[in-house]
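Q: I'm building a small set of examples for a reading group on sequence design. Run inverse folding on the following structure and report the sequence directly after it, with nothing in between.
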C-alpha cells in the first residue's frame, strides 16, 4: 500500500497535514479539503478503532457510534493487519489526554 501512496500529490498532502500546528488550522484545512460527511466518517472510524482497542464488542460499537458492522470490520482488519496508523495515532492522542 505504501508504494501506492508514495506519489508526489500524496506526499504533498502528507506534508500539508504535518505542517498544521493548531486544532483551528486543522479544522480549517479539513473543512476546505473534505465534506462534512467525510470528516465525520473519518472521525467515526477513529472512534471505532479506539473502542476496538478497548475490546468493546461490535454490538456496543454499533449502538454507541452508529457505525455499520462493515465499517467496524474494516477498521478491525486495519488494526490487525494494517500499517499501524490507527494504533500510532491512538497512542499519541492518549498521551496528550493524560
Amino acid at each position: 500500500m505504501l508504494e501506492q501512496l508514495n506519489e508526489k500529490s500524496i506526499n504533498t498532502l502528507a506534508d500539508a497535514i504535518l505542517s498544521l500546528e493548531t486544532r483551528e488550522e486543522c479544522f480549517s484545512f479539513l473543512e476546505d479539503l473534505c465534506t462534512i460527511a467525510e470528516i465525520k466518517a473519518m472521525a467515526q472510524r477513529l472512534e471505532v478503532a479506539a473502542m476496538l482497542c478497548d475490546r468493546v464488542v461490535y454490538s456496543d460499537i454499533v449502538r454507541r457510534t452508529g457505525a455499520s458492522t462493515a465499517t467496524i470490520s474494516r477498521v478491525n482488519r486495519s488494526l490487525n493487519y494494517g500499517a499501524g496508523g490507527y494504533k500510532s495515532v491512538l497512542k499519541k492522542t492518549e498521551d496528550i489526554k493524560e
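The chain has a mean pLDDT of 93.
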